[in-house]
C-alpha cells in the first residue's frame, strides 16, 4: 500500500461523520506509520471506521466489513496477525504502517473485546515470525 492509498484510507475514515462514534482520526508520522500504541487506540483510530463501533461490522450499504464481535476466527491468533500483515479481500495490509508491537496490541485487543474471550495473549515472537522483519 503506497502513501496515496493510506492517505485515501485516512481521509475516507475521517469523513465518516454519520457513524455514532469515531474515537479519533489516525495520527500518522512523517514515515507514514501510525503513531497510536495501544490496541484500543489503534482500533478506534484505524479499524473502527470499517469494522464499526463494538466490532459489529457492516453488511449493508457501500460495502461488507466483517464482524469482529463474537468471531470464532479470532480464536487462533495467527488469523488476525495474517490479515493485518497481508490484507484479505478488500482489506489492505498494514505491515508497512504498523510495527510488530502495534500488531500485537491490536490482535490482543480484538481477541479480548467485543464479546471475544480469547485470553491467550499474542506474543511479539509470533508476529515477528509471520512478518519476517
Automatic annotation (TrEMBL):
Residue ranges constituting the Cytochrome c domain according to the UniProt record: 34-114
InterPro entries, sorted: Cyt_c-like_dom, Cyt_c-like_dom_sf, Cyt_C_IC, Cytochrome_c-type_DH
Keyword Heme attributed: yes
Coiled coil regions in record: none
Record's keyword terms, sorted: Electron transport, Heme, Iron, Metal-binding, Signal, Transport
Pfam families with a match to the protein in the record: Cytochrome_CBB3
SUPFAM superfamilies the UniProt entry points to: Cytochrome c (SSF46626)
Signal peptide: 1-23
Origin: domain of life: Bacteria
Protein name: C-type cytochrome
Organism per entry: Oceanisphaera ostreae
